[in-house]
Design goal:
This protein has about 160 residues and is of the alpha+beta class. It is built from four helices and six strands.
Amino acid sequence: MSIYWKRLVVGLAFTLIVSVFAFVIGYTEEKGGIEGWEKGSVYNAYYDLTLKESLKGIVTDIITITPLPGMSPGVGLLVESPEYGSVSVHLGPRSFVDLNSIWNLKGAKVKVRGVWAEIANENVFMAYKVKSSNYALKLRRTRDGIPHWTMSPEELARERTPE
């Protein structure tokens, strides 16, 4: 094989490796982690279990949220409530909340259980459960408010097993 072809093959291999690496990095950044959403984080300190309430309304949008600077992106819902108007409902980090499972909530009538919090001068509703006529999403353990995204796979399996 001539030097030209060897250089061409090496160049193409290098380009392929760099492209795959860039794709993996881009996917990881897009999906995000749970930075700022961890157990014991400043964000989770806003979740006051003694203030549990429920909220009913219609989902008007599915939104990306970053509650505090430096946090990984999260997923939220905008819910139009007859009682409270337009409410930003925080679900959890984007790496945990499966967008494919909630895309059909837009326009759905929902009941959200959670707590009110003032985060970055905005009143938000931190959800522990979202329920519509054909869908339920549980995000935190009811008895103590521990986020499901901070649990081990074993703890999460136990939490999701019906009693």
